[in-house]
Design a protein that fits this description.
The chain has about 375 residues and is an alpha+beta fold. The chain is built from 12 helices and 6 strands. The chain has 3 domains: about 80 residues; about 150 residues, Beta-Lactamase (2-Layer Sandwich); about 100 residues, Response regulator (Rossmann fold). The longest helix is centred in the C-terminal third of the chain and has 68 residues.
Length: about 375
């Protein structure tokens, strides 16, 4: 009799079938029975009660393990959704984000909106395949294309944007804090919402719901959407940064290409001018003169240090090598080089060397 009483205490609390939500009640019922009536129970009754408690322990452990496995699977799905967005251009991230939220978080519909000052602007909508028959897609997409919603003081979204936290609306049709046009076109009974935060402010909103048996979302749904919103902000910011870096790289490459083209043009000009000077000097020497009258004194205008530097340039020495050879600072070498370029009327080292050779006396 007492043995049967002990079992009834457990089974009344739901241990039969191993319902996870009933296990704590089953444990409490058995422990209470042991405290109040254990002295009147036989050894057999006590053994039965102990076996039932052990069975509850095993079921609770199985339930906890199952919950951990389910949570790991959820995290993997969420991570997979964000990984599929990572590396995409910013506009593509926006276009694909609602669909990936449905896929990664098992939502029925997800709406992505931007926040512009005090305006809430719906941008992209994704409806899962299983939710199409419960939705009017044409009406919902038309709403998204035209809606401009003021973030007034009574809306739940206004408070969430201000505090940058996620929220859950349990009774959307009856709540005084929902935007009724959205609730009606979505035909939703409850939804979760999370801000997309960038640079310390909410720049967007994500709304999502499910089409369960009762149509209700849970606190777990809110946590999933908040996690997706946080990851989406990082992915979008990374996309913007990569896009900006790409533009800068292209501009820098174009600038370097222009510099290279200008340098090649100057080298060709200096080379042509140097060849002309050599021909002029040769002609002057063959006619009995030492140098063309217009070139007289140009080489003589170089200082001794400038002559040393241009002579070392002619050997192919770099500024650093010239600095070490003459025991002067590299900045001083550059300053002398600038002055001798100006005196010789050239822009690059090759031109300076060629001009100096043309103007210098030959044995």
């Amino acid at each position: 009799m007492l043995c049967l009483e002990a079992r009834r205490l457990a089974e009344a609390a739901g241990i039969s079938g191993g319902r996870a939500d009933a296990l704590p009640a089953a444990r409490r019922a058995l422990e209470e029975g042991l405290r109040e009536r254990a002295r009147t129970w036989s050894r057999r009754d006590l053994t039965t009660a102990g076996e039932l408690l052990r069975e509850i322990d095993e079921l609770e452990a199985e339930h906890e393990e199952s919950e951990v496995r389910a949570r790991i699977a959820e995290i993997r799905r969420l991570r997979g959704a964000l990984d599929r967005l990572d590396g995409c251009p910013p506009q593509q991230v926006i276009d694909r984000a609602p669909g990936e939220a449905n896929r990664g978080c098992d939502f029925a519909r997800t709406l992505l909106s931007s926040v512009d000052g005090s305006l809430w602007l719906p941008r992209r909508l994704a409806i899962a395949e299983h939710a199409v028959e419960h939705t009017d897609p044409a009406a919902f997409h038309a709403f998204v294309a035209t809606a401009r919603i003021p973030l007034g003081p009574r809306l739940v979204e206004t408070d969430l944007v201000r505090r940058r936290v996620s929220g859950l609306v349990a009774d959307a049709p009856e709540s005084a804090k929902t935007f009724k046009a959205l609730v009606q076109v979505a035909r939703t009974t409850s939804y979760v919402v999370a801000p997309v935060v960038s640079g310390g402010r909410a720049v967007g909103l994500l709304h999502a719901d499910r089409l369960r048996r009762d149509g209700l979302v849970t606190a777990d749904d809110r946590a999933r959407l908040a996690g997706f919103a946080s990851g989406l902000a990082v992915v979008h910011e990374r996309g913007l940064l990569l896009e900006r870096l790409g533009r800068q790289s292209r501009r820098a490459a174009a600038a370097f290409a222009a510099i290279d083209a200008d340098s090649e043009r100057l080298v060709r000009m200096d080379g042509a001018l140097s060849e002309g000077l050599l021909l002029t000097a040769d002609r002057a020497a063959s006619e009995g003169g030492d140098e063309h009258p217009s070139l007289v004194g140009v080489a003589d205008g170089l200082t001794a240090r400038e002559r040393q530097i241009v002579a070392l340039m002619a050997t192919g020495a770099s500024n650093a090598e010239i600095s070490a050879r003459l025991v002067i600072a590299e900045a001083t070498v550059k300053a002398h080089a600038t002055r001798l370029f100006r005196k010789l009327g050239v822009a690059v080292r090759a031109g300076a060397v060629a001009r100096y050779r043309a103007l210098s006396p030959r044995p």
